[in-house]
Structures
1.
Amino acid sequence: MSTVSVRYVVDDVDTAIAFYVGHLGFAELMHPDPAFAMLTLGDLRLVLVSPVPADHPGGGSRPMPDGTRQQPGGWNRFMIEVADLARTVGTLRAAGAHFRNEIVTGIGTRQILLEDPSGNVVELFEPVRQEARLTPSAPAAAGPPSPGPGA
Amino acid sequence: MPDPLHTLRLPVAPVEPRQEFAAALRRRLGQRTGQFTPGAATARYFVTDLDAAVIFYTQQLGFAEELRAAPAFAMLYRGELRLLLSVLGQPSTRESADTGEPGQAAEGEESPAAGGSNRIVLGVPDLAAAVARLRANGVRFRTGITTGITVRQALLEDPSGNLVELFEPLAGYHERQGGTR
């Protein structure tokens, strides 16, 4: 159970699959029910559900006990590291993707908020500090590069 | 006459081919499709009180604190999940490129907020025991234990009202073996 799972509530699971697979490089693991699909990208498992009635067999997107329906949106999100944020944003914009803001330079990363077709947000980021990188570019990143012989 | 340099040479050590390693490396490289970096399992949650959130996630849910840049930001880990906690109204929660005031959205834009239905999902071996322990510690649950398809699950709230889903696999549960790598 080491894989990381995130559940997103979407209006329509098929539309969401097309978005996450087509734009963001996710692979579909299963889609056994119109209201449920499981996708994967690296170590992230993304569970997509659309709201279902209380008596639906799928338990993940039923209403709360007080009747509140689960719905897409909000600000919490998962994040995807990209090598070149400006280029990625250009590609996605050209493909018709919606962004909630423009590229923001934060403390460790440059970042932008992409919206899926239901209005859920996905953060794309490009590290501007080595510590913010998820995948160090070189295995010998532990120390400063040593000068070569005769340097 | 033996080569005088022979004693200085390193022995030739036989290297066994490591098929599993090679296969894992191939899979990983094969996932490197285009511009997205795989292996990136990071989530960001908005919280109202950083210290309360760090205490909650480390003491109740088994996260480890990696760094805390009070008062705005903390980074926690649990297994392969990296959870970023951002405090509302702080510079790092700025979502707009052009606002002069940190933590405030530009005119006509919405400000970030905690809550919503989207959530991280954490597996536990015994859901009933986990729920009982957390309830005894004063953790709020938004649902009781519900049974879905091949899982039992429960939704709890962090101190800022963000959802965390706990689940226990039942018979027929499927998960890719060895994670996704």
2.
Amino acid sequence: MIRRTSATFMLLFLIVFCLAACDKKEPVQVGFIGGLSGRVADLGVGGRNGVMLAIEQRNAIGGIKGRGIELIVRDDEQRADIAREKIAELIDQKVAAIIGPMTSSMAMAMVPLVNAAKIVMVSPTVTTSELSNIDDYFFRVIADTTGYAGKNARYQFETLGQRRAVVIYDLGNRSYTESWLKDFRVEFEGLGGELVDVKTFISGKDLSFQERVAALLEARPDFVLILANAIDAAQICQQVRKLNPRMPIVMSEWASTERFIELAGRAAEEVYVSQFINRNDSSARYQEFYRAFIERFGQAPGFAGLAGYDAALAVLDGLARQTSGESLKESLLSMGEVLGVQQTIHFGRFGDADRKTFVTVIRNGSYVTLE
Amino acid sequence: MPVRSLRQLLSLQSTLVAVFPFLLAGILGILWLRPQIDREIESRQLQFGKAIASQVESYLLTPLVNVEGMASLVVDDSFDWHDLQHMLDAHIAASVSLRAIYIASPDGTIKAVGLREDNEVRREDLIGLDFSGNHLFQRALRERRPVWSDTFLSVVGGGMSVAIAVPSADRVVIGEVDLDLVTEFLQRIAIDPEQLTLVIDERGQVIADQQGTHTAQQLNISNIPLVKRGLKTRIPVSEHFDFEGVSMVGSLTPIPSQNWHVLAALPEETAYRTIWTSFRIVTAGLMTAVLFGVAIALYLTRRLAIPCETLAAHARGIAAFKEAADWPTGKISEFNQLAADLQQMSDALRERERQISTLMSNLPGMAYRCRSDSQRKLMFVSEGSLELLGYSDQELTNDLCPGLNSIIDAEDLATVKERVDKALAQRKPYQATYRVRDAKRRTRWVLDHGRGVWDKEGHLLHIEGLVTDVTARRLAEEALKKALADAEEAKDKVELVLRSVADGLVFTDMRGRIVLMSASAEALLEVTQQEAWGLTLDNVVENMSVPGHIPEIQENGHGASLLELTFVNKKDGRKMEIQVSSNLVKNRDGEAAGVITLLRNISRERELDRMKSEFISTAAHELRTPLTVILGFAEILLEEKILADHQREYLSIIVDKSEVLQRLIDDLLDLGRVDSGRLVHIEKERCEVCELIRQAVAEARLTCNSHRFEMVLPEASVELYADRLRIAQVMENLLGNAVKFSPSGSLIEILCSIGDNWVQVAVADQGVGLTAAQKERIFEKFYRADSSSTSKQGLGLGMTIVKNIIDAHGGKIRVDSEPGRGTRIIFQLPVPGDAGDIPGNSHDSGNSIHLKEGS
């Protein structure tokens, strides 16, 4: 009788133990969403790889409070309808937080959904000022366009003495491009500059830029401002250089990937680019990150990888510091700042960061930081 | 070891016999077969991966050959660019996988472009583009061999593609392979829709996949252990791994020509499907066999168990008094034999039960069996319950009756529970008397004998006992107790009274032993009751002659007269006068129970008596002398003749009254003598009785003419030796009393008779007579039978003196009287020896002379 009772107890104990053990292994799920296919894929892939690296490194040292972290990756295909569908999938999976998206247009489509679901979304690269200063569940580890578009304008006007600008930009990510352009225009025109012509396109396969570029150059500008992804920007640069090899070119940080230099070849030389990343950073922290990224993915992280990594650090730190009964939003806001790879990122009252930008120029196939 | 039913046991064991081999086979299968299967599957995946890789390699060789073909055409400048353009277009059109092909000059400028679509605008866009920054171009120039690109976005903005660069002299021919087409190819060669086919480069970056999704996402899968191992070893490897949350089994096979690898894998579920299906079929077959075996085993079990259960059910029926039929039989001889044996056993048990039942119904009271719970729930009671409690056995054992304790009087319940619990704890029988309420709410006293019944393991099964009615006995006991208490109280009271009486009181039993003494008796006898207990008075009082009369009393059955004793105090030697009177005590039946003796200290009274007698004697002497003078001179004066008549009359009165006074004084003097213990002074002389009587009567007649006196005297003269004056005094007193206490004119008789040696004189009157009490006390000093105010004059000393005088002569005196019938005083005097010649007594001889004398 006693033997039977003790056997029953042991069985019960085993079951409870197993359940407890299983419960312990239940991972924290974190979602990633970004454009992983199509022409903006280098941004999305870079961001995803940065996030993957951060999570893999965190899992290697024991995860969060003993729980592993599982990354669920979704591709928004740079389409608003797909983006909403995919974000709903992540919300259904009850992820602890979502990292992404990588472009502003997608963010505009997703933010209402995450606000409704009260799930924190931390974007690595969304810069549109349309999402600034709103008390919502949207966080970012990057500043909005206001600051650095203006900085770029001042640099062109004051440092380089440029006065006439033509602009070509991608309507496929107009939340970003138009926000950027607005801030640039306000500063540039405020200084006395002039936007003499503006051309747009919608990014896609087998686009031809020759005609648009020729039309822009007919306006006899001092420089061409390109607001496009790296591939499109490379194509546009090639066309500009074909028609006028000495025409100064200015680009927003969106195109400032390694891929741009590879694709644009000699056309990339002397192109002014805003940067979120200081590629000349020799700090140990950045070098360590850089080495780990190359080792893991075989390519340089770029600003997307860096921003993705920083966004992931913010989410993981927030989750690690989250106390019982506290939401991740409260945890992040109370945390106030995240030690990013290159700089400490401060969250404002509404989760908007104040990341510094750099003005660079491409020389001999490399980005050179000017300011 | 748990006890199970036969059916359970047989079912369980037969099922185990059927199932155990299969369980064993299953466990062995899992432990041994599973790794075998895993290895087999991995081996199959390896072969499968190799086949896929081989197909992929040959598929990719086609565009390579195409591009190399073009490269061979442009080794020198012997071609026309326009023609070359057409040739490029023709090559594209002919190729299944190339989407674009272009030729770059040594500085990286694109010189010619062949596109799949005829798109002149696009062609114009592309021609002249700078390709020098491209890694692929640089590598082709540097390595002087065909190289495949490691980035997968079309250089010329054509979406997802992989490029191949072939150096040709100082030019480079680049062909872009559309990854969508590679995806299509991979889908085509896939053997299963769920198959995962990934073409990856040496960094683990996905180049193409079956679904196209991973191609687009530019996934790096170098963190998968299989990939890590394969990239390192560069030989085909296979193993299990997880991909996007799905467990898979697959292989990584290198494609040497591109320095790429093909990862071909299937979800475990798919890979193992065939094996698992076979396993399921076999298992289902085996399970069917097992089930069949179990079913047969259960059927056999049932066949065996049913007779057993029938027997058991029958036994339970018998146990519950519900079954009276014969034991069931069946088709199995052993069971029939068992049934027959059980039948025999149950018959024997039934007989014993009948005996017990008869015995129980004859028991005076109620036998019971109850649980050992708080209420002692009754499981069985004998028929005696109806008579004892007015409840039937069903009423006491059904669910409405909580138990035996529920009918116990609330006052007794706690005690009963305590006693029962204690007895059960000690495993001893218990016995309790308590009150119960019967069906009519009357209280009855019962005696409960009971004891617990334990099983072998020492568990208390139930309690058995017998309750009998002891109400009558209990009431009798209570009455008796009360009576005893009352008696005790009464006895105490009596003892208290007895011990408190002023006179000494000693109670002796019929054997003369002291059983009770009053406090004053203790003081008198100077001994405590405890000391005297059980002793006779003899033992207690050494110098008293008390004991002598007690046995006498016991023998005679009546009380002795008073005794006066002198007792010398042991302490001070003082003498005490003690009056002792004893009386027989009789019980209710009139039987003698003992003697009660009263001791009264009369020393003081005696002292007073003596003082009084001395005073009287002295006073009488002092009175006598003047009175003699008065009387003498009065008589002398009477002799004188000179007196006038009236003076003579006055003198006569003085003389008369003086004489009366002189007699009184004489009486007082006599009394004094008597009281002082001295006998009356007697001066005996020879004297004739009749003469004395006649003389006395004559004097009486002189002084009293209101009564008639008659004398009956013997004829012969009777001489006495006596004091003449004293005898005359006796006669005078007796006659005086007779006159005093009888009506005037009545007759007073004086009778004299002679016996052998005595003479008897009786004086009889016709007066009021005396009561017994008066007779008793007539000789006491100063006692007067009639003490009313109308009584006759006198001191009450006459009869006392008479008795003293008679006693002093050695005679006897007695009183014969009844109220209303007159009084007769009779005294006898001894006749001296020389008077023996005097003839017999007056009654016999009749020689007495009855003289009638007129008054």
3.
Amino acid sequence: MTVPYEFDEVREDLDKLLGDVLRSVLGEEAEPLPEGVDGPPAADDDRPAVSVLAIVDDADGTRLGVRVRVTGRLAHLLAARMFATEQPDGEDLLDAVGELGNIAGGNVKALLFGSSGTARLSLPSAALGGAIVAAAVPDEAPAPAVVRAVVLGDVAELTLLPQMAADDLVWPPVVRPEVLEAQP
Amino acid sequence: MKIVVADDSRAMRMIVVRTLRQAGLGGHEVLEAENGREALELVGEHRPDLILSDWNMPEMTGIQFLQTLRARGDATPFCFVTSEGSEEMREQAAAAGALGVIAKPFTADSFSDVLSSVVTS
């Protein structure tokens, strides 16, 4: 199955998807930002957090990157609520932001690759602040789709990146159960 | 009851346990695993009454975990809690013997709907 990479038809679905995911993990309403509208700026010293995954369809080589980016402040709030603690540490933040990306990625896969039996979703790779590495997308790749929402006064962003390189991500194993069964 | 919760995200394991409680299905002994292989070992050691498992995990995925259990003749009630809830996955889960698939994001109601028949409060 080939994803058309023209996202206008699903923009409303993507807005809803981002809002639903944020609401579920934060317990707060998220307001979608119209295209081209700037949301509230992050603090100058804010260190953003990013979760990156990829969906690959082995049948035809379709690759789609899924990136969720939130402010450091929002990442902190997210981890605090997920772990029910006032002082989440860096590992908590990575886990929380990774899971945010995982939920978004799974829902993007269901939305765009729902009828494909061959598409696979990677595990999330999360990073904070200076550790964030730009997603590798070839120059000729179609334009990404970006939807954003404001939640708790901060902007959360979901970006779909056609043809993103996915080799460096971690993938769940593809092993037949009888092989596993034979192991001690 | 003993419940095994398998998910590579510690945050999600906590959320699953919290949601069980919010659904009125809490108060049970919960055993946590980071992937299917760890969960398989826990099942062998502790004989749980219910397994809640993510689908996408390192080492051994949820569907591999379920298929391995069933191949061993283990019929422990098994439910997926996963970010992917496509029809194709639901069919695959049902064919492998899963009780159901709870898709993330989920609510306490979705837990009640799927699990109230096998979890007593």
